[in-house]
Amino acid sequence: MASITGDTQPHHVVLFPFMSKGHTIPILHLARLLLHRRLIVTFFTTPANRPFIFESLNDTTVTILDLPFSHNVPDIPVGIESTDKLPSMSMFYAFGNATKLMQPDFERAIQTLPRVSFIVSDGFLWWTLESASKFDIPRFVFCGMNYYSTSVIRAVDQDRLLFVPESDDELITVTRFPWIKVTRNDFESPYTESEPKGLIYEFIMNVIVAETKSYGIIVNSFYELESVFADYWNRECQPKPWSVGPLCLAEPPKARDEPYNNKPKWVHQWLDKKFDQGNSVLYIAFGSQVEISLAQLKEIAIGLEESKVNFLWVIRKSESEISDGFEERVKDRGIVVREWVDQREILMHESVQRFLSHCGWNSVLESICAGVPILAWPMMAEQPLNARMVVEEIKVGLRVETCDGSVRGFVKWEGLEKTVKELMEGEKGKEVRKKCMEVTEKAKKAMEEGGSSKCTLDLLIDDTCGKTT
Ligand SMILES: O=c1ccn([C@@H]2O[C@H](COP(=O)(O)OP(=O)(O)O[C@H]3O[C@H](CO)[C@@H](O)[C@H](O)[C@H]3O)[C@@H](O)[C@H]2O)c(=O)[nH]1
């Protein structure tokens, strides 16, 4: 049986995340959970991503193996090995397809490793199923999304609901979940096309077909959060889902006086000061890939200035222009950070009380785990559906107001100011905070001894490692 049951011969697991921060970070957490259960872990990545992985896992026994990433990919600038470094997200699918060039090296490496009990690889690395099958190793797909969004996408796609209305903003009832209403604008290509074809479609089809044929799917969520959708997946979809999250709870948060390693110390000192002054802070960040227009950035700046809240705004390096003198004018109550921060620690800081977020699934989970309600501002990918889940389904946040009321509309500073104030000071803000705290407790319980996610991961290990003894 598996090592968790007292076996002396530890089992060996291969982890291979997609090269995107939002897909890699949860698998780093999963690595720790597997180590706690005395499994041996080998982590695959590429040379340019190694430092990020190493920084996270250097206190562990995980072996990190680099596979060269081809520098001869049309449309991808040489040296780019992670989606957050792409000059434009329009290159995302070309980048995703280029990962297949790693397959021969991956397979050569697998042959040199001690016997592998199972592989966990990202859904976007669809070709790893073929590799796993060659060596008769069960492959688990790692799913970066939640059950709600994957179920709603599947339901509207199967019932072809998106092609009924004329307008992109008309509300559509999701027949299989009739309390949920969506618009075509909540979705992206290929789902919005009645006869999809081309690069994106082929990529998504490769991902879905390989997912369906895999041994199981690991979902970074917990059963109690979205049981209706987890049950739907279990009943109607393939492969079998295993809910093992929130993975961000795999490591305990750092104590307030613990050194912050190489994270920007001044940011935490600034938060400490805000806490000592009795001020609550709005944290603003839009993940690792979202592209925001200069006009929209400037509007955010005005909204923050007018709302008079204390804020910490993380922007990507490429977005360094905001507006004349903004930072100087707001310096007593707000800071703009242009470097990588430890978002989880920031959300856990006592002074951070609200989060203006694009609703990337990791950000949502990290916010929930910290008991911080969300002001949802979805921008791309499945984020509009995550935002609906946050606001309408689990009710741990409010939605930012767009100028035309549409899902992807421009947000004017007045709409931002109004919703920021409502979340920070209004009645609705208090309600969602209360709800958020309740969900936080459930999330923690799921990961504790006897909790649903902890038990599920134990079962998964028993199930797979038991077969390879
Ligand atoms: O300075 C930073 C910036 C980001 N993060 C972390 O980076 C991750 C970002 O992940 P997420 O919030 O999910 O956003 P994206 O990077 O945009 O994630 C992509 O991947 C997610 C998981 O599949 C999807 O839900 C999103 O739509 C997709 O854009 C989170 O763990 C953050 O804590 C930091 O720690 N520091």
TrEMBL record:
UniProt keyword Hydrolase present: no
Gene3D superfamilies assigned: Glycogen Phosphorylase B
Pfam families for this protein: UDPGT
Alphabetical keyword list: Glycosyltransferase, Transferase
GO MF annotation: an example: UDP-glucosyltransferase activity
CDD domains: GT1_Gtf-like
Top-rank lineage group of the source organism: Eukaryota
Recorded family membership: Belongs to the UDP-glycosyltransferase family.
PANTHER family named among the record's database cross-references: GLYCOSYLTRANSFERASE
Protein name, as recorded: Glycosyltransferase
Species this chain originates from: Quercus rubra (Northern red oak)
